[in-house]
Every structure is written in structure tokens, then in C-alpha cells.
């Protein structure tokens, strides 16, 4: 059997708010299917879905998205007004650069080059 990724689902407290953050970051129109489920189909990317869960985030994500950009620092600056937060400073090594970020509910993601 061979499977393919249909969507990536984030557990969250406020699906409508979080889908708007990710739509602002990646493009696409946010869709609220119900008060407990929203999604966005970013251009040239798999669907991101957001489902309401009762528990809050308590630890670092075990999986996160790496988003390729030309300049991680500039991308971080542009994401801040959308509700993102930086985690420490940028990291650069022989492979490229990355900036760890958090979305409005604390889910980690990275802007990367290289």
C-alpha cells in the first residue's frame, strides 16, 4: 500500500483564528467548516486543517513545518504582525540559515534557506 498526504491537522483552541494566521502566512482562503474545524488550501501546498481540542499545548511539537524563504530574518519580521513570535535568534551554518518561530497558539515552525 502507498499513501499520500491529504492534509496536515493541527490541534488547537481556536481553529478560526489559527487558520487565518496560516492563510496570511502561506496564502489561500480560510474556510470555517464548523466552530471546531477550519482549513486552508495554500497555493502549491497541502491543505492545513485546524481542529478544536480541549487540552492546551504543553510541550514542543514533535513535528513542525520548515518553510523555505529567501531571508529568514525578513520573513520573521513579516510574520510578527500576523501573530507569530520568534524563538531565540537566527541560526546559520554551512547548510544555510533558519529562524525558529511560533504561531499564535505556540506551534513551532521554521523559516529556512539552503
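^ Assign residues to that structure.
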Amino acid at each position: 500500500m502507498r499513501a499520500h498526504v491529504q492534509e496536515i491537522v493541527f490541534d488547537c483552541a481556536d481553529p478560526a483564528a489559527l487558520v487565518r494566521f496560516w492563510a496570511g502566512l502561506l496564502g489561500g482562503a480560510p474556510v470555517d467548516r464548523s466552530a471546531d474545524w477550519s482549513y486552508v488550501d495554500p497555493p502549491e501546498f497541502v491543505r492545513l486543517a485546524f481542529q478544536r481540542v480541549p487540552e492546551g499545548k504543553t510541550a514542543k511539537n514533535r513535528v513542525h513545518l520548515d518553510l523555505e524563504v529567501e531571508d529568514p530574518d525578513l520573513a520573521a519580521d513579516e510574520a510578527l504582525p500576523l501573530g507569530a513570535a520568534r524563538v531565540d535568534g537566527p541560526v546559520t551554518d554551512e547548510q544555510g540559515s533558519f529562524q525558529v518561530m511560533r504561531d499564535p497558539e505556540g506551534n513551532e515552525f521554521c523559516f529556512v534557506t539552503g
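The CA atoms of residues 77 and 86 lie 9 Å apart.
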